[in-house]
Write a structure and sequence with these properties.
Blueprint: H1 4-30, E1 33-37, E2 43-48, E3 53-58, H2 67-97, H3 102-110, H4 133-141
Helix pairs in contact: 1-2, 2-3
């Protein structure tokens, strides 16, 4: 015959262990983050499971990108990071409640689906007019010329404040 005190003690130990696992799962879910990098390396994003932006960094390719494409790339990369974070919830909960249990089905039904858009296509490079094949090969191998630096604005006020309007410089 089984000792009832031993049964109760075993039950209390299992319950305490389950409670510890639940607290650990709760903590892991609260601190859950996801990270993603765009395929071209221009954007790296990390977000919380709720989608809050935690970190955003730009690679060198972001410098040459039009702002609207860069913004779209940030958004799609953030969505992929959030989907990755939310996908970890089932992984955290599975050991606690079982992979195919009704409780897991309930957990999965409470997680809103995250629609992950495709990354925006890169814009086509501007077409250059090429006269012959030699120039075409040279243009393809040559990086675009850097922009010339801006000239400082000239101060027009200093041209007239030190001389008289009625006297010609250097004499009449």
């Amino acid at each position: 015959m089984t000792d009832p005190n031993q049964l109760i003690e075993d039950y209390e130990q299992r319950t305490a262990a389950l409670l510890d696992q639940a607290e650990e799962a709760k903590s892991r879910i609260a601190n859950l983050t996801g990270a993603a990098t765009s395929t071209d390396g221009a954007v790296t994003v990390s977000v919380s499971a709720g989608g809050a932006l935690l970190n955003l960094s730009f690679g060198t390719k972001a410098d040459d990108m039009p702002k609207d494409r860069l913004a779209a790339l940030v958004m799609s990369t953030a969505k992929r990071a959030q989907a990755q974070a939310v996908g970890q919830i089932a992984t955290i909960m599975a050991p606690l409640i079982g992979d195919n249990s009704e409780a897991m089905q309930f957990v999965q039904s409470q997680i809103p689906p995250i629609e992950v858009p495709d990354e925006p296509e890169p814009a086509a490079p501007p077409q250059q007019f090429v006269v012959n094949e030699e120039q075409q090969d040279a243009a393809a191998a040559q990086p675009p010329a850097p922009r010339p630096p801006r000239r400082p604005a000239e101060d027009d006020d200093t041209d007239y404040d030190q001389r008289s309007l009625f006297k010609k410089e250097g004499g009449w």
